[in-house]
Structure formats: C-alpha cells, structure tokens
Design goal:
304 residues; alpha+beta; Beta-lactamase; 3-stranded antiparallel sheet; binds 6-diazenyl-5-OXO-L-norleucine; hydrolase; glutaminase activity; Beta-lactam/transpept-like; acetylation
C-alpha cells in the first residue's frame, strides 16, 4: 500500500494542471495549490499516508457527512422531512429547485440541504452548543481530541455569505427553518470551517467502512443499515453535479469540499482522504479525484 501511495504522490507532483483554488471564501484563496496529501486507513486501523497527509486544511462540505450522521442519530427518519435523498444535478449552491419543490432541498449535501440539517440538529440550542456537539462528534469518530474550528475561515465565509444567506432565507420563507436564520448560518459556516488533515479525516471515515463500527476503537457509531445508507447518499450526491462523473471515474462513495479535500469510502476495504486545493469547474478537488482514480486502478476497490 505504501508504494502505491508513493507512486500516486510522485505522479501528482508532476501535474501542471492543478485546478483553481476556491476564491469565493477569501481565506481559502491564499492556500498554496502545489500541495497534495493522501491517507488510507484499513479496517484494522492500520494507516498509510504520503505527501502532506498531516497538513491541516478546511474540510468545508465534507463536514456534511458528519452532520447528516448526527441528524440521523437525533431524529432518525424524520431527517427526510427536512431534506430529500436524490441527486440535484445542479451546482452545490444552487437555489432553483427550492422554488418548485416547496423549499425542501434535494439532499443533505448541497448547501441548502446542509443548512436545513443544521436547523434540524439545533433543537432549540444556541449555535455554540450545537457547534460543541458537532466538534465533539468529529473528535469521537476520528478518535482525536485536537480537531478544531478555524475561526478566520468561518468569519471569511460569514462576510461573504450572500448566496448561503439567500438559500437560508428562501427556505425560511417556506417555513422550513425553525431557528434564527443568522444562528443557523453562523453554525453552518463554523461547521464548514473545521480544520483537519488527511490522516484525521481518514480516521473519521472508518465507521463507514466497516458497517458502522470503528474497528480500531471497537466502538459502534451507527447501525450497518445506516452506514450503508450514508454511503449511498455520498455516492449519489457527494460531488453535486459531478457525482455521476466521480462514480464513473472512481466508483466509490465520496464527499468533497471546496477546501480541496475528498473523503472516499471503499466499503470493507478502506477509508481514504485526499487533499489538493485546486478545484475543477464544479468545485471538486482536481488532483484529489485523479489520485483516487489511480488508487482504485491499483487496488480494485471500486464498488462496481
Ligand atoms: O457553503 C459553502 O459554500 C462552503 N462552506 C462549502 C461548499 C463546499 O464545500 C462545496 N464543495 N465542494
């Protein structure tokens, strides 16, 4: 495994077309695009990594996997009255479907859906309490107490919130947001500003590899059925309007973030985190996707 990761990292280092760093969140625009990291955790907890696998980056939308998991834990199938579970085929920050679909987001991974999930897990609490819960959950699944929120990134997104604020207010106009829109948005921006390394993220994904169990800690996080369902959503919706392309090229459930990270799950085989800040035109990590494509070619881990 180590030699595969070293080969992938050496190949990525030679790439000249590295995509474009997200600049609509100014704090992310200054990240050096010439970075690449990869970490793979096997079901027994053994970790392999290469490149900048211990460098911290903004996990952004990858956080949505964990807030969905929390929401399912808190309210179970009632989650599906807040969001759907169909791919949207539209960009991650699109508003158009909301108008015709009663303000209900297509799935929990597009921005509107993730904002609705935050509203669902707040349950009358203040943003600080909800954020503490989110952070606690991530520290628990990653088995790592050092995970934190980068307040500068959260503030940067708050200052440039027009699009997400539009989505939240639009949903509120349908009676779909129960808490203060400002509180929901503030919580969402801080959730997206969680900072992790590939190694930490690959650890956090372990429960989705082994039917809901984190085998390295011996702790069950969710039921086998729930793990399968979260994986199915990641496969169908985790890369927005690029989900079909990702399934075609990589063939694994995956969730991307505009920080350039991707968490990919090879059920029964591995939890994989890659990071390279340059994005493709859809907003998914360009080299991250190419690296995963190489990894499945070498390992045969595609689910298809
Ligand atoms: O709300 C946003 O726009 C960002 N905090 C998250 C978007 C994101 O990561 C899209 N993923 N590729």
């Amino acid at each position: 495994m180590q030699s595969i990761l070293d080969t992938i990292t050496a190949t990525m280092a030679l790439r000249t077309q590295r995509g474009r760093v997200a600049d609509y969140i100014p704090q992310l625009a200054s990240v050096d695009p010439n970075q690449f990291g990869i970490a793979v955790v096997l079901p027994d907890g053994q970790m392999f990594s290469a490149g900048c696998a211990d460098k911290l980056f903004s996990i952004q939308s990858i956080s949505k996997v964990f807030t969905l998991t929390m929401a399912l834990g808190k309210i179970g199938d009632a989650v599906w009255s807040h969001v759907g579970r169909e791919p949207s085929g539209d960009p991650f920050n699109s508003i158009v479907q909301l108008e015709h679909e009663g303000g209900k987001p297509r799935n929990p991974f597009i921005n509107a859906g993730a904002i609705a999930i935050v509203d669902a897990i707040m349950m009358g609490h203040q943003p600080k309490e909800t954020l503490a819960e989110i952070l606690q959950f991530l520290r628990f699944v990653a088995n790592d107490e050092s995970i934190f929120i980068d307040d500068k990134v959260a503030q940067s997104e708050l200052l440039h919130r027009d699009r997400n604020a539009s989505l939240a207010h639009f949903m509120a106009s349908f009676g779909r947001i129960k808490h203060s829109v400002d509180h929901v948005l503030g919580t969402y921006f801080h959730q997206c500003a969680i900072t992790m390394s590939c190694q930490q993220l690959a650890n956090a994904g372990q429960f989705l590899v082994s039917d809901g169990m984190n085998l390295s800690t011996g702790i069950r996080v969710v039921s086998p059925q729930r793990a399968r369902r979260i994986n199915s959503l990641m496969l169908m919706c985790g890369h927005y309007d690029g989900s079909g392309e990702f399934a075609y090229r990589v063939g694994l459930p995956g969730k991307s973030g505009v920080g350039g990270g991707i968490l990919a799950i090879a059920p029964g085989n591995a939890s994989i985190a890659v990071w390279s800040p340059g994005l493709d035109s859809i907003g998914n990590s360009k080299l991250g996707t190419e690296a995963l494509e190489m990894l499945v070619q070498h390992t045969g881990w595609s689910i298809f």
